[in-house]
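Entry details:
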Amino acid sequence: MLTTKLTSFWLMSLAAIAFVFLLSAMMSFVQLTYKFQQQKVSELESLLIEHYQTQPDWELESWLPPMLLAYNAVEFRLTMKSEVLFAYQGNVNTQNAMVYNHLLDPKSGLSMTLTLPQPFEHYSVSWYELLILGVGLLAVIALVRFGHVWFSQQLDGIEELAERSRLILQGKHEQALASPGNGKPRLINRALTKLLEELQDAHKERGRFDKFIRSNTFLDAQTRIGNRLFLNNRLDAMSHDQGMVAHGVIYLLEMDDLDLLQQTKGESAVKELLHATVNSINSILQTLPNSIFARRSHNQFAIVVPHVSLIEADQLASKLLKVCLSQPLPNDVENQDNFYHLGCAYFTAGDNVNQLLDEADMALRAAQLQGNSNWFMYDKGAIDEEFAKGSVRWRSFLENALVQRRFYPFSQPVIDSDGVEHHKEIFTRARDNQGALVRATLFIPMANKCGLMPQIERQMIERVLGLLAKEQHKDQVYSVNLSLDTLMSRAFTQWLKTTLLEYRHLTPQLIFEVSEDIVIQHQDKLKPKLDMIRKMGARLCVDHVGQQVVGTYYIRECHFDMIKLHRSIVRHIHLRPENQLFIRSLIGGLYRTEVQVCAEGVEVFEEWQTLQILGVGMAQGMYFSDPIEVQ
């Protein structure tokens, strides 16, 4: 923009100067030509006066006609008073003649009238003159072109500085830092680069500080896993007033003689044993999504694994105890075969959290009473029969539901601080052959195990696009969840790209949600796919934020437009100052960005009021509305 303005001004100035010079030259040439003609007329007057004074007989016929012929005179008359002394009529025809009436002698009344053609009327331009004019014009054009190119090159550096400044004002700091270019003045360009680097470091430091706050709030300082507060938050998120929302198992692992080991071997031996045990258990839990591992007390740990059957819970208990017993203990530790004990309690949807912990504790005491290191499952005879029927039955059910299109969208509104609906989140529900709804906590884990989530979520996106094409939904905005298997599927990615291109007029009304733990673990692989979705015009949202203790710098790197706080952070937020501290830190880290913060699982007015005070702009949950089927 600057180059265009300056070069335009420069060219207009050159054109104006050239026009003035050309006009001046033409005017000077015209004036000089007229003056030359007038000079010849004056010479003729002088000759006539001289002859009149010296030669009374005149003899004009002998010398005056050749001179008038040389002047290309159209007409000439010499009179004294009213008497014509001499008349001449030339053979030159002209329309715009120059007439000179001059009084030669006032005493005798001698005067002359001379008619001459315009000075340029009979003038023709020769090829030599045209050649000179052409060479001059070409030289001027060449010099102007050279000046324009040179001027543009000198201003390119300023243009690059302007482009970097525009990126900074748009908040694209990473892009501005990645394109330093050859901006001039170089001092300003280097200063911008240095400030952007320091700003990037500040953002990273802020992310590390946020993680530090979360770590000291929710992590055990010695083992770096969740503490008791973290466990309570996660259990609250997995339940509501009616009890647990899904089925699964909880384990309580206790090291009986850990205090004795600390007294005899010191803090370093205890720390080494704890780190080895925790790392071994984490390696097993990595394959179990949404599992929870926390330290309840000095020698007791809690493990919660949702969406597993009773048979899988038994197998997992044996595996956990096996890796614990494989840890080397000091030789002088008494009762090495009676060091680890594991209590297990299987739960189903609707079970009370406190009762569940009591059952796990009773199972732990039963395991300790058996004498050796072992595990014990609390059996209350309440196994989810639907889930225990096996994966073969579930695969058949899910494949039939896909063919018969028995997956239906349920929506829950997301409300902003003004009470206006921002968008609606789509939840997937299935119906069996009798038309009864199947709980998502049942079929989604099995769909993940069977590898059918890409087909289910593709069908759901097709339904959402069909809704947006209808007149009653034309202004609605929907958010759709994408799982890891779906995003990693090449066939789904290609289909989604083609579909978004086909429905590019509807993509601004779509928001795609991805879970935080997926983004953290697979950021490098997911970033190109997320960038593709964003470039197609859709928005990106990361949900379940706060479920894990991780840094938040990935929000900027992946260019998310929205984040959703996990319900474990939102639950009883008005009673938990440590959760309020985390939200304040998170929102402070997103300062000067356009990332919107939303809260999931708001159930009471006090929670929503506290979230608004903290700066959260949107929320969803049963306080506003339950999920309802979209017609």
About this structure: The longest helix spans residues 2-54. The chain is about 50% helix and 20% strand.
